[in-house]
Design a protein that fits this description.
Helix content is 59%, strand content 14%. It is α+β, with helices and mostly antiparallel strands and 219 residues long.
Length: 219
């Protein structure tokens, strides 16, 4: 078991890198690596939250005969959203780990709150060290607040981008389905009819105005 713990530590240091670890994390990892606990091979690729294979006896009802058996944890493949990574993470988790994640408030909070001696899988230790390093770098960044005018300008820019994207999609659909050649003629005809009607209406209004002026002069 000690050899398994040493190999896990070597793989962890190789993947994360000693320079990327927060100060004091390496010493905590050395203390909390599960040297004496039996860890399944498939548990290295997921978050099991302390749930591993268990062994016991199957006892018959008639004679009380005992035969060896094992209990495997209920493992599910889920997509969990990480706010610090801004993307979904596809990971294999046990139902107990899902309840712990829901109770903590998310995958990031679960990895940060869970101590190293309870994070007994290689993947859990890897993600915990990575998330802690990213949060440490995030805490060193400067926070900049925008004025309401800048926020309004950004919002208007996003709206313009959406309108441009919508227009580009409409043009692409028209080119794809051959809609442009036919409807250009129809649109040109409609615009010409509208302009002709507009000039006719204007001419009628002017003639009515002239008649009204003549009546006023005669009176």
């Amino acid at each position: 078991m000690a050899f398994r713990g040493k190999e896990m530590m070597k793989k962890l240091m190789k993947k994360v890198g000693e320079n990327n670890l927060a100060p004091g994390v390496k010493e905590q990892l050395k203390k909390c690596i599960p040297d004496s606990k039996v860890v399944m091979n498939r548990a290295k690729r997921g978050l099991y939250a302390g749930r591993h294979i268990q062994f016991g006896n199957r006892i018959s009802e008639d004679g009380g005969n005992k035969s060896r058996r094992s209990w495997k944890p209920n493992v599910q493949e889920k997509r969990l959203f990480s706010y610090i990574l801004d993307r979904h993470i596809r990971v294999k988790v046990t139902t107990h780990a899902l309840r712990c994640i829901d109770k903590a408030g998310g995958i990031d909070e679960y990895l940060l709150k869970t101590p190293y001696h309870k994070m007994d899988t290689e993947m859990g230790l890897l993600w915990k060290a990575k998330i802690e390093k990213m949060y440490e770098e995030l805490g060193k960044m400067e926070v900049v607040f925008f004025s309401p005018e800048d926020e309004a300008r950004f919002e208007q820019g996003f709206k313009d981008l959406k309108l441009e994207e919508r227009a580009a999609r409409r043009d692409a659909r028209r080119q794809m389905y051959g809609w442009t050649a036919k409807n250009k003629q129809m649109e040109d005809a409609r615009t010409s009819e509208v302009t002709c009607d507009g000039t006719a209406i204007v001419g009628e209004d002017s003639s009515h105005g002239d008649v009204h002026e003549q009546l006023v002069a005669n009176s």
